[in-house]
Fold:
Amino acid sequence: MREYGYAAVRDSLGAARQSVDDNAVARAGLKTFLRAARRLPALRRRAFS
Structure:
């Protein structure tokens, strides 16, 4: 079980590092999209289902 947990943490950390971008415009665009998806259920379903 520990091996599974450690592997999951490694995968999650890798994904987090990949998603961090030095491009401020891209980061702002992503944040804007996620805020819109949070407020618009149809967009959230379409994007995350």
The chain has a mean pLDDT of 84. DSSP finds three helices and no strands in the chain. The helical segments are 2-19, 24-39, 41-48.
